[in-house]
């Protein structure tokens, strides 16, 4: 007898692993599929999240705050760390095998009516379409959809409309696909803006990015809100999170944000700007000061500045671009004086490896190069070690251990010989997933 899990595994085999972004404008095709599926994306309001870094953290904060008001909230986000079903969640629960299979069959039937088969859509497109079908089936009150990369040509931009377009930090990334200037990157991302949507913009964008987003919002009769106007003061910050003083409903509000990193305070300003807009017309009850205090202090985000163990002290972060690495270095620098830092690094070869390493030049640490779990795209450990030797003058030692699990064992053995060690694993989600249990 075939179980739902067996059917799920069989269905996964039919989904293509090819990336089709950039080959052509895929949006008209995806819109035709959504139309054949009876527009499931119109059955609930959508928050569309776009940008380079901070999508996951910002989506997590918004989803948990909305859920705390009593809403059923769907989230489509990538990449997954361990289980592909992580990409589709309702109230923080992964889509189960039965509902995945039902949505898969619905999608197959819809494509069949158009004379299409699975070879004609990419893996990301398939998961996006299954997500919007499942959210309709689950009768969510709100859905949060994260762009995979890009904006205008991203699969998620096939949706008919959005209630909110939320922009996180936009920086240089995926330049071969998005353009070689910040103006080009910002323009393609800003083109997700829908007419009459509430547009929420991250507080610390490049000035030209602000101008592009505000201009396109105005052209599309959307309502622009800058998080620059949201006053949040960082009073204490470390790898355990941040204490901040915020203005909320005209009064001072003390908050503890459990997500670590100074950049999370900027993400929080974006979220509080969303909250102010949402509270003008909440679906159910408003997001209150009490909800903010109780929710933000207990957030956990697998693979982002995540505390994995206390003994030894071990953190993991899947950030892979220079903007993310700058945040990692900024978070680690205060620990350099009192801790002996051990960096376990692994990258995909199509990432900005040299730019990331340049940011680590002044960080005194023992470095271990390893090979992320992605045979087609991973940069091998020996090559990474050679690059490290050329670019990391402050390194105590530089070692290559190809297997990520063995690299972590080596780091823990090294830590036993240090007085106050801190192990940090970074460079790729394909690396971090080998040491992170997202269920913790």
From TrEMBL:
Task: Report the EC number(s), separated by commas if there are several.
Answer: 6.3.2.17
Keywords tagged on the record: ATP-binding, Ligase, Magnesium, Metal-binding, Nucleotide-binding
Q: Which Pfam families match?
A: Mur_ligase_C (PF02875), Mur_ligase_M (PF08245)
Q: Which residues form the Mur ligase C-terminal domain?
A: 303-428
Q: Which InterPro entries does its entry note?
A: Folylpolyglutamate_synth, Mur-like_cat_sf, Mur_ligase_C, Mur_ligase_C_dom_sf, Mur_ligase_cen
Q: Where is each Mur ligase central domain found?
A: 49-271
Output the superkingdom of the source species. Bacteria
Substrates-to-products reaction catalysed = (6S)-5,6,7,8-tetrahydrofolyl-(gamma-L-Glu)(n) + L-glutamate + ATP = (6S)-5,6,7,8-tetrahydrofolyl-(gamma-L-Glu)(n+1) + ADP + phosphate + H(+)
The family assignment reads: Belongs to the folylpolyglutamate synthase family.
Supply the name of the protein. Answer: tetrahydrofolate synthase
Give the source species.
Agrilactobacillus composti DSM 18527 = JCM 14202
């Amino acid at each position: 007898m075939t179980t739902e899990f067996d059917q799920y595994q069989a269905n996964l085999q039919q989904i293509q692993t090819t990336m089709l972004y950039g080959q052509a404008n895929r949006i008209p095709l995806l819109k035709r599929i959504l139309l054949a599926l009876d527009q499931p994306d119109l059955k609930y309001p959508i928050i569309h999240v776009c940008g380079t870094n901070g999508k996951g953290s910002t989506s997590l904060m918004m989803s948990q705050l909305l859920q705390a008001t009593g809403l059923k909230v769907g989230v489509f986000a990538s990449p997954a760390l361990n289980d592909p079903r992580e990409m589709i969640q309702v109230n923080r629960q992964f889509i189960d095998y039965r509902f995945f299979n039902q949505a898969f069959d619905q999608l197959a039937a819809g494509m069949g009516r158009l004379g299409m088969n699975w070879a004609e859509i990419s893996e990301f497109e398939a998961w996006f379409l299954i997500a919007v079908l499942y959210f309709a089936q689950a009768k969510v009150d709100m859905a949060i959809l994260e762009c995979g990369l890009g904006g205008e040509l991203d699969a998620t931009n096939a949706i008919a409309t959005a209630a909110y377009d939320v922009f996180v930090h936009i920086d240089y990334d995926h330049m071969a696909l998005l353009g070689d200037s910040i103006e080009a990157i910002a323009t393609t991302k800003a083109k997700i803006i829908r007419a009459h949507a509430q547009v929420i913009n991250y507080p610390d964008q490049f000035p030209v990015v602000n101008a592009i987003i505000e201009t396109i919002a105005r052209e599309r009769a959307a309502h622009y809100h800058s998080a620059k106007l949201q006053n949040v003061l960082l009073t204490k910050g470390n790898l355990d999170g941040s204490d901040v003083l915020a203005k909320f409903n005209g009064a001072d509000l003390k908050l503890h944000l459990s997500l670590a990193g100074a950049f999370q305070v900027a993400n929080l300003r974006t979220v509080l700007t969303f909250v102010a807009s949402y509270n003008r017309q909440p679906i159910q009850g408003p997001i209150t000061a009490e909800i903010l205090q109780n929710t933000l202090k207990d957030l956990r985000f697998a693979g982002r500045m995540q505390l994995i163990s206390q003994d030894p002290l071990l953190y993991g972060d899947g950030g892979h671009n220079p903007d993310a690495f700058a945040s990692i270095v900024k978070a680690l620098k205060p620990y350099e004086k009192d801790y002996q830092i051990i960096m376990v690094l692994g990258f995909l070869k199509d990432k900005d490896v040299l730019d990331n390493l340049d940011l680590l030049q002044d960080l005194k640490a023992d470095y271990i190069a390893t090979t992320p779990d992605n045979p087609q795209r991973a940069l091998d450990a020996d090559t990474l070690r050679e690059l490290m030797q050329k670019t990391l003058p402050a390194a105590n030692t530089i070692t290559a251990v190809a297997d990520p699990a063995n690299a972590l064992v080596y780091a823990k053995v090294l830590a036993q010989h240090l007085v106050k060690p801190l192990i940090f694993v970074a460079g790729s989600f394909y690396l971090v997933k080998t040491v992170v249990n997202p269920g913790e």
